[in-house]
UniProtKB/TrEMBL annotation:
Protein name: DUF1573 domain-containing protein
Entry superkingdom: Bacteria
InterPro entries documented for this protein: DUF1573 (IPR011467), Ig-like_fold (IPR013783)
A Pfam family that the UniProt record links to this protein: DUF1573
Organism, scientific name: Candidatus Kaiserbacteria bacterium RIFCSPHIGHO2_12_FULL_53_13
Length: 172
C-alpha cells in the first residue's frame, strides 16, 4: 500500500514537471515569433529612409475619432527597392502605402488580427512613397485611455526593416 502511494506521488510529480517544461518550451517559441514579427531580432536596417520616423500626436480625444500621419519613405540607392511587407504593432493602427499614381495600397494591420496582404510596392531609385498611418483611439474602448506607443514596420526586398512610430495621450 505504501509503495503504491509513493509511485502515485512520483507519477504526479513527473506529470507536473512535464507540464511546466511543455509550457516553458511553448513560451520560448512564442517569444521568438513575436520578436521576429516586430523586427526586433535578426533583422537589419533598411536601405529605405524616412526624414521623419517618429510623430507625437500630443493629447487626442476618443470622441474626436481617428487621427492620421503621413510619413515620407525614400529610396536613395541606385537600384529599385521593393517594400515586401508592412505591418503594425497593434490592431488599433492601420497603414497604407500611397503609390506614385496617388492610389492607396492596404490596409496593412497587425499580424494575427486578420489578413495582412503583401505590400509588393516597388520604389524606384531616387523615388519616394507616402506611408499613411491611421490610429483609432476607440479600438480598445474605455481601457484605451492613456499613453500609447505604436509602430509600423516596413520590410524591404533585402530583408531590412524601417520602423515608423506614433505616440499620443488618449483622453475620453
Amino acid at each position: 500500500m505504501k509503495s503504491k502511494t509513493l509511485i502515485n506521488i512520483a507519477l504526479l510529480v513527473l506529470v507536473i514537471v512535464g507540464l511546466f517544461a511543455w509550457g516553458y518550451a511553448g513560451r520560448v517559441g512564442t517569444t521568438a515569433s513575436v520578436q521576429g514579427a516586430s523586427g526586433a531580432s535578426g533583422t537589419s536596417k533598411s536601405v529605405l529612409t524616412a526624414p521623419e520616423n517618429f510623430y507625437d500626436f500630443g493629447t487626442i480625444s476618443m470622441k474626436n475619432g481617428n487621427v492620421s500621419k503621413e510619413f515620407q519613405v525614400s529610396n536613395s540607392t541606385g537600384e529599385d527597392i521593393t517594400i515586401s511587407t508592412v505591418f503594425t504593432s497593434c490592431m488599433c493602427t492601420l497603414a497604407y502605402i500611397v503609390g506614385a499614381d496617388g492610389s492607396a495600397k492596404g490596409p496593412f494591420g497587425m499580424p494575427g488580427m486578420g489578413y495582412v496582404p503583401p505590400a509588393d510596392e516597388t520604389i524606384h531609385a531616387g523615388e519616394s512613397r507616402v506611408v499613411r498611418v491611421i490610429y483609432n483611439p476607440n479600438a480598445h474602448g474605455p481601457a484605451g485611455v492613456g499613453r500609447i506607443d505604436r509602430f509600423v514596420t516596413l520590410t524591404d526586398s533585402r530583408g531590412g526593416t524601417l520602423e515608423l512610430e506614433i505616440k499620443a495621450l488618449v483622453t475620453p
